[in-house]
Structure formats: C-alpha cells, structure tokens
Design a protein that fits this description.
With 147 residues, the chain is α/β, with parallel strands linked by helices. The chain is built from four helices and six strands; from the N terminus they run αβαβαβββαβ.
C-alpha cells in the first residue's frame, strides 16, 4: 500500500454545489436564497434563540432567584454545648457565647436548639428557642428568656 493508493470511503465526499453559474444549473441568479430577506443577505444567519424582534425569553425571565429580604438568619447553639462551656447557675447571653467561642458572630440573633442533654440549671437569654431546648432547660431548673 502506498500513500497514493489511499482513497476516502465511497459516499463520504460529496461534490461541491457551484452556485451563481447560470439559470440552467438550477442554482443561478439568487443562488438558492430566494428573494430578499435576512436569510438572503451576507451570512444570513439567525441565532437559534432569535424570536423575530419580540423580547427573547432569556431577557423576559428573571436571572437570579428570589431573595427574601425579611428572612432571619440565626446563629445556632445546642444545649449540649452550653453544658460543656458553662457552670451551674451561670447566665448565658449572646455576648458570653461570643466570649467563650461557641459562636463567631450573632447575625440576626442566637437560637438555642435541643440537641444533646443538659444537667446544670442555667439562665439562657437568646433571641429564639426550639421547643425541645426550652423544655430541657426548664426541666433541670433553668430559665429560657427571649430577647
């Protein structure tokens, strides 16, 4: 086999259509583009999302999700963390939680959640409590106060 023997697969190469070569060719004069209009001129390309001058759907739809301006983002602390860091009878406030390193920032408030067990009576002052956290704190003789 020589380089000169290599041929493309039969049927894979089609003959080029020569446009604009006379009326008898079937592709003369307007070269198969019809008369006037966008597709008859230049490259004649219309992008797939073009909607004929109507505001396209990609501009009619909102670009980003809904942002709830009234949403509160609470910093959460579990009762088991309070058990580890505080002594019996202590008052737990958001400022003290920052001080001992249980939270990094307060955000819109501090919410106490009921994960874990608590044995010490604490006075917990926070912006919100889950029902199980309130129940556990009050069961051991502590107080849950909402700011």
């Amino acid at each position: 086999m020589r380089l000169s023997d290599i041929r493309p697969t039969p049927g894979s190469m089609r003959k080029r259509i020569r446009v604009g070569r006379g009326i008898g060719s079937g592709k003369g004069k307007t070269s198969g583009k019809g008369h006037k209009g966008q597709k008859a001129r230049g490259t004649g390309k219309v992008h797939p999302w073009f909607e004929g001058g109507q505001t396209p759907i990609h501009r009619r739809l909102p670009k980003f999700g809904f942002k709830n301006f009234a949403k509160k983002v609470y910093t959460v602390v579990n009762v088991e963390d309070l058990e580890k860091k505080f002594n019996s009878g202590d008052e737990v406030t958001p400022e003290k939680l920052l001080e001992v390193g249980l939270i990094k920032k307060i955000n819109d408030g501090v919410k106490i959640l009921g994960n874990g067990e608590i044995t010490k009576p604490l006075t917990v002052v926070a912006h919100a409590f889950s029902s199980s956290a309130r129940r556990k704190i009050e069961a051991v003789g502590g107080k849950a106060e909402v700011i």
